[in-house]
């Protein structure tokens, strides 16, 4: 075996440097965004306007100029404030619930893991190499608890920062839209980048620091060290669960409620300020699609890193204490930050958006550029950071692996992510026939629309599943479970760019809402709508990749769990495993039933409140009186917090109960079942929802002969399309994406508790 | 080991006797039904009427008496004729397609299995006991092909006979409805019983004869004998595939097409004779819900018997040539026929239905009585037909099993079926809160209705999956794969009663349609509607049990396949198996996408034709002109035959391709994945559909204060409910139930081709 080229010292420097570069880059972008002033008459406003009127950059379209300007800017600022306050207040209330959960669960972790060796403080022989002494289980309990808390806090911070920048940027995007679609695009995209880079860099930095601090205690016991680190992934994902589910219910209850009364019953446009639920709807975008998604992807990132690290710690990297090779996952992420930084410059500085039709290609170009660059990046990291040959733990044996094999593992994950993204785009963008067919089926009413939409979602799982299967096969064959974990990391390595694109969508959506509410002109609204439509498609792409990576992450965690629980085979032909498999495959249905029903009930409450306001507040429909926005915000908040608890419990308790009562074999079955079944529902649910949304937009936009034959707004086919869109809302924004977390979280929780289950689990069969 | 009490000779006699008793009973019931004359003015008609007017039995309600009577009877006969002709012509066309398939596939079976030993005619060492010589693989190829053809023909016959009796009984039920709901109920139920008993008895008899004839050649080589017999299951199930899919597409294309134009656009009632698609709709009930379902359940029955027999042949029963014990599965089925016969008498002779509200309890009582009696029956068979202790093949080892353990295996399956049935009823009957909640959600429109309905379907899988998991665990732990196979047989042992109840539904549905078309009075229609509503719920129960049994059957076949392919573990932790698992879990989605899209496209064609007729045939809406029913029948026929081919290919080719290219491990993964994922979609799809249907009926019937607040027909909530019902149609009658066959058929096909895959499979990995 040849040593890695990169020295340990250099590794110790490069990782934090990359993280800091990412953070600085994010702050610079924030600074640029902040130069759009929300105060009327400032340097960027009307004063400066005359001087540069001939340049495209500083030109305000005519009807927005003049006396009305101050008024509009003030109104935007006011609305932004309301959204920001609503979102902040929701998140803080949510964090109180999460805080209680965090403390309780920290205690559970400590007690369960501590009890493995009856809270003994003595060192004990290691699990994999009995000749060496490892730190006591009590230490593992304490450090796992600490890393769980760190992961939780980082996850919460990621979500919160994302929400802050999004609500900071939304009105700024609206104001920039007065100058042109390119300006607005850049503002929204930069803000997305702030979130993407902050999250990726923070996640890396905290993990890096934690490892280094823990090393002070653990010393050479890397097995124990990285076992304790898995708590970081659990913390990240469990916060994401509540963020995704709570945020998802919030946003869709408000959205569905606002649409059902506003669009369907009262026939007023979306985001009309007369609709009492409109602020809640906009708040929802920020707490669900921004904060929730941020926590989710942070969770995936943390988990795949932990899965890779824990497997590495019992492979030759860990056994021989090769620090650089051990840090391979972190180096991949570091490289990812740099690659994404370069990619972002292409969008913000190199190519300039001048027309609406350039937006979507520009975003897609981001994905392609980052993937191509990252492939080179992976090759570099693999050749400098890894010895040319090493061994990887493979369920009891050590398997010899070459560095180029690991390169293929990461690269196959990266490219599978791109394939999944583009397939998702094909099935959800209204530029292609699947969505157009769905739109066409609206001719015969809502029923055929729903049937075609469901069929589309089902069909859209085929290629992504093959892509995932191929990645699994390749990486599993080359480097066992470590291969899967780094494939997942590969898919997530361009997370900063992915998140920037993801966050761009809700920011544009909000910007449109603010334009409508501030009473800005039709042309502004058209520009923000164009931004939003592109965002819809890219959001679907983002969701597709998030689900794909969740599948790989979950499998990697499953592998790590199995290794740690000292299982060497999970045989479907044993009753214990098979019942786990079939019950596990049922859990996503149970979970989806809960979340969808929650959205439905919360939306019904919202509908009643909106109807009440419309009928009791005189002059509301005429625009003479203001609705009570606060009450709708409160309804969404209360409903989502109350409703997130049962699905949360289902996910958090299942591994504990199954592991304790039925033991590790059944739990393995449950994890495998939930994974293979959940990934299908997640993909089909989010694509079905995305397709309905864009089928509706296709009819509304009426760009082709065919689309015009279905429209205009208010026609029967359009009404049928609105029904499909409303059905799709909880599918694509609540139950679908939450399933990601279901499959990941159960796996990481099993991994953290593996020592307990291996020692004390399976009580029912011990009777 | 103690010998079984029942001698081989007695076994040889008892099985065919039970089958013949079943057939005779069915013929007697048919005779009773035929006494309802379709010729006006006969003994049973108006003449006889005066003499017994004081008795409830022969009393015709007033508006049906007198001069109009002849006219009505003639009209009913005419409509019945049209339906019967349409159904017969469809089935014959379908059989031509199936015939071609059957011949091609028979050739494939012969070539694949013959090639295992290069078409050698020499005897060879047995697979499990190398010291004994077994018949050559060529013999296996020939006999498998023959039993495949026999299974196919029996399946086709089952479907055809069911259709014949159903179309014979529908108008008779309508006519009897003039005398009272009890009379009509008995007629419909007796006709259902004809189908149930014919199918159960025929299936048993043909299987029994085949075994005995094959034994002449095979002699003591039971391993080879029962391997060849598995072709019977494959034949039964592959015909069922086309029957279910083709029939399912037919019935729902016609139904959705008829509803979308008739009910939604033209505002005419269901089954209105002015609707051109109305005959096609009624034909559809007979070819889809009767013939398709008949073939499906026959397939399940044949497969579970084959799975049990093939495992038994390599257990002590087969090795020691204990004929009685070997025939245990057939004896259970024989006992089932007798038990169901007694159960039927309760409905037809012991309790009499006098009021509408007694119908549903009476049907449910059938299920409970048959289950209780069958439990005793199983105990009797287990104690007289089995030695007190024996060994069962368990993936390479022999496991010692007691006869009472086998009793528990069968009984747990039987009772799990009942539990699944009642849970299904809870979620789909409008007497309970889940459906009422769905109906209530119609207040806010179709979108919330669809959301709540989907959530209900997802939720309804929880308990059935636990019931299946428990059955699997108990029977697997007690008697390995043989336990699972007999548990499936237990669930299917009361198949005659189950089928009678299932077939009763579409017959009543048709009877209502005929009453409407013949212009009979409102009161008659109310009676047939009441019959139909009860049938809807019991149909859902039947579907639930069919899915449950399919899950067990499929697992049993999977186990038999694994045994035959000489695999001892199916380890999820190997890449070959895992990719199989995840791709397998995707197949039900692919398949559902195909079938739902097919229904959608076929329905669109039907809508166009119905619209065309309404707009081009003058006087159609006024009832002055007759629509062109034949054209609609033709559209449904053509569409369903064309559309059944791609999903059919998916199911039939997947095991062949996977087995040949990727080998038996990956195929095992595919089977397990398809099973655990498919059963969930199947249950949720059929319950969602059933719930929407009954939510609509709940609003229409308006029996409670709450229901009335949502109605009446034509109100906004009712319109929303109709949309849900239409979406549910393909879910509950096409894609949901077809998934049963997907999971069973892939398993039985793998089992039949196992020797080929074991010898020549996995080409891709051999490169």
Automatic annotation (TrEMBL), chains A, B:
InterPro entries xrefs = PPase-energised_H-pump (IPR004131)
Enzyme superclass (EC): translocase
Q: Got a GO cellular component term for this one?
A: membrane
Main subcellular localisation: membrane
EC number assigned by the record = 7.1.3.1
Q: How does it sit in the membrane?
A: Multi-pass membrane protein
Q: Where in the cell is it found?
A: Endomembrane system
Domain of life of the organism in this record? Eukaryota
Q: Which residue ranges does UniProt annotate as crossing the membrane?
A: 13-33, 97-117, 137-163, 184-211, 326-347, 367-386, 406-427, 461-489, 546-567, 573-591
Q: Print the keywords alphabetically.
A: Ion transport, Magnesium, Membrane, Translocase, Transmembrane, Transmembrane helix, Transport
GO molecular function terms here?
Answer: diphosphate hydrolysis-driven proton transmembrane transporter activity; inorganic diphosphate phosphatase activity
Q: Which HAMAP family match?
A: PPase_energized_pump
- Protein's name according to its UniProt entry: H(+)-exporting diphosphatase
Look up and give the organism this protein is from. Answer: Araucaria cunninghamii
